[in-house]
Amino acid sequence: MNMMKITTLGIVGGSKWILRSFSSLSSQPLRVCVVGSGPAGFYSAEKLLKSLQVAEVDIVDRLPTPFGLVRSGVAPDHPETKLLLLELMLPENSEQIVVNQFSRVASNERCSFFGNVRLGTSISLSELRQLYHVVLLAYGAESDRVLGIPGEDLDGIHSAREFVWWYNGHPDYCNLDPDLKSSDTAVILGQGNVALDVARILLRSTTDLAKTDIADHALRSLQESSIRKVYLVGRRGPVQAAFTAKELREILGLKDVYIHIQEADLLKSPADEEELKSSRIQKRVYELLSKAASSSDSHPSPGQRELHFVFFQRPEMFLHSERSGGKVTGVCCEKTILKANGESGKQYAIGTGEFEDLECGLVLKSIGYKSIPVDGLPFDPHKGVVPNIRGRVLGNAPTNPAMIANGLYVVGWLKRGPTGIIATNLYCAEETVGSILEDLDKGLLTPTAPKPGREGLVQLLDSKNVRFLSFDGWEKIDAKEKSMGSLKNKPREKLTKWEELLKTASLPVID
Asked: What is the band of 1 on the pLDDT scale with cuts at 50, 70, 90?
């Protein structure tokens, strides 16, 4: 017998949401644990709290700080993007003041934050599932795809994710120390928005960067940098470039940066013309690249930094010499041509057997993030996602692999792969929460059965001597960072070391 009362709440984010409340005969709260405090996790938590009056939501994150990629992924010279990410998630309060969405969600008496808790180490997935009716995994993608070509382990080669986390003050990468001094040239493999972010940080004036929340160690390194040339290398052509017009326009507008694009690379084939007809975004990107090529000077001025767009090249191997001491000295690239895929209509790159070496002292691979599995979680290593249907995790029973794992859900990059824009996480969370509500209506989540939830989590973490951060701990970190930043005319001066973060939050540092 379904003991749920249903009333219409209204329209949220363009979709109709239902406010659900249980009758007194079914008063057990639905206990939910969201693992990951980035945008996908918080969108989901917010929608669950709005849609279910009896939901108790605990947000768990391995870091002492919330926000995920809002804090560690968005470029420091894009403060408006960070603000937009937060403002998209929150309405105005009664005083018409926009408040921080995390504060609003976390201050809800039905929501708690547990920082410094690592899934798979501090607590297992099976333990979480015993404690909660619903476990929603939103921990994103914290690893990288690999090229699998010779020399990939040479010094001086990093993933773009590592570099981004370094300049954004992520505590795991504060000691990365990329070598920006021994060469004047960097090669970035990939032509997406992350690649443009990395190139822009390398080329932008450090006077401008000093006004942002860039990590202090990164600012000092960039101020001493010898990098003057950056090559953005892509397997395909300008028609297929993956960056957006907004990001491209920004980097093309950097002061005192010479832009170089081969005119021959801009020649379009009939297949290219068809691609442009079907994509307004690709058409605009191509137009911006064409305009930049035609308006650029033939040679850089003395002292100018340089950005070279290199199309139709794919990395074949990384180079080094006996004198380099195991450090990368260049990238050997194979020239490519495009061949149409009859099924999809898209074009893919194939090698021509012609090779060219790009000399450099720094390589940043921007070829894609990758999620990592945890024990007890079905995982597709090829796609780098958890197999799911509309956020419902598929079981891994060998006799019935399509069986749904009741009570276990995914959202964000772990669900769909590391793709999409800000709004994509909204729709992704909306879909997964919709699946949770449907399963609740069908009686699949058995909320009438008691689960220890928050109290059980606290007891288990205490028994394992895991020192977790509450929302109050984050507020102490937040206040100190803003205070230190105000002394330097910055939005904040990030604490970048685990010891500093835990000490500021008043947690004992345990070796």
From this structure: very low
d(CA 351, CA 134): 48
Residue 233 backbone phi and psi in degrees, to 5: -105, 130
CB 144 within 8 A of CB 413: no
Binding residues for NADP(+): 191-194, 235-236, 247, 420
Q: What is the mean pLDDT of residues 258-269?
A: 95
Segment 422-469, tens digit of pLDDT: 678 889 999 999 999 999 999 898 877 889 999 999 999 999 999 999
- CB-based contact 325:288 (threshold 8 Å): no
Cα–Cα distance for residue pair 233/314, rounded to 1 Å: 7
Annotated binding site for FAD: 40, 69, 119, 413, 420-422
Q: Which H/E stretch holds residue 330?
A: strand 330-340
420 burial (CB, 10 Å; 0-12 / 13-18 / 19+) is middle
Do 405 and 395 form a contact (C-beta atoms < 8 A)? yes
Strand residue runs (E) in 383-507: 388-389, 392-394, 404-410
Exposed / middle / buried, residue 171 (Cβ in 10 Å: 0-12, 13-18, 19+):
buried
* Residue 219 host element (H or E): helix 216-223
What Å distances lie between residue 188 and 107, 143, 194, 369, CA to CA?
Answer: 42, 18, 10, 15
Whether this prediction's pTM lies above 0.85 is answered by yes
Concatenate the DSSP letters of all residues of 106-154 into one string. HTSTTEEEEBS--BTTTB-HHHHHHH-SEEEE-----EE-----TTTTS
Paired tokens of 321 = 């010499």
Q: Which residues are annotated as a binding site?
A: 40, 69, 119, 191-194, 235-236, 247, 413, 420-422
Residues in the chain: 511
Q: What is the distance between the alpha carbons of residues 183 and 203, in angstroms, rounded to a whole number? A: 14
SS3 (DSSP) at 8 = strand
List alpha helices for 20-112, DSSP H. 39-51, 69-72, 79-87, 101-106
Question: What is residue 313's three-state secondary structure?
Answer: strand
